[in-house]
Amino acid sequence: MILFPRPRIFYLIALALAIPTYGVSLLVFYFLLKRPYDSRAASLILSTAKRCLETGLDGELFRVNRAGIERVFSKFSLPEVESKYGPGVPFIRWGVIVHPMINGAQPFTLRVTRNGGKVRIEASDGEVWWLLQED
């Protein structure tokens, strides 16, 4: 009597080897690729916001992913942040941001609109509520 036929043994061995490898590959992907890319995207958004505050003009970025935008708001935003999602609607995120190296650690209003590959950034001193509203 054969307790474990040959294919089952190979299947169990393959499964035992695949599960840890899959988990490690996810961790490697997150720490080596995704996390630094999101950090760079967040830094670009904040530097563009600083430039917008200094010049008074809107800024544009390209190839910025949603996770980078979410990272800025999750780390530096005051609680009154709103977002708008929907089919056919551009991704809009706005809120009051406090960053220790921007605007002398005073709150400023940031609005990020993502439509396709283009990201539009608007920033203004203080809590500017017209910037926090929908167009």
Secondary structure elements and pairings:
Blueprint: H1 6-55, E1 59-62, H2 66-76, E2 82-84, E3 91-97, E4 108-115, E5 118-125
Antiparallel strand pairs: 1-5, 2-3, 3-4, 4-5
Helix pairs in contact: 1-2
Instruction: Identify the strand order in the major beta sheet.
Output: 1-5-4-3-2
In one word, what is the shape?
Answer: elongated
Cα Rg: 22 Å
Mean pLDDT: 78
What is the subunit organization of this protein? single chain
How much of the sequence lies in strands comes to: 15-25%
N-to-C order of helices and strands: HEHEEEE
Count of beta strands: 5
How would you describe the overall organization of this protein?
With 135 residues, the chain is of the alpha+beta class. The chain has one domain: 2-Layer Sandwich (Double Stranded RNA Binding Domain), CATH 3.30.160. It contains two helices and five strands. It has helices spanning 6-55, 66-76; strands at residues 59-62, 82-84, 91-97, 108-115, 118-125. It has a five-stranded antiparallel beta sheet with strand order 1-5-4-3-2, with helices on one face. A hairpin with a 2-residue loop joins strand 4 (108-115) and strand 5. The relative contact order is 0.13. The model has no long low-confidence stretch (mean pLDDT 78).
What can be said about this structure in brief?
The chain has 135 residues and is of the alpha+beta class. 45% of the residues lie in helices and 22% in strands. Strands 1-5-4-3-2 form a five-stranded antiparallel beta sheet, covered by helices on one side.
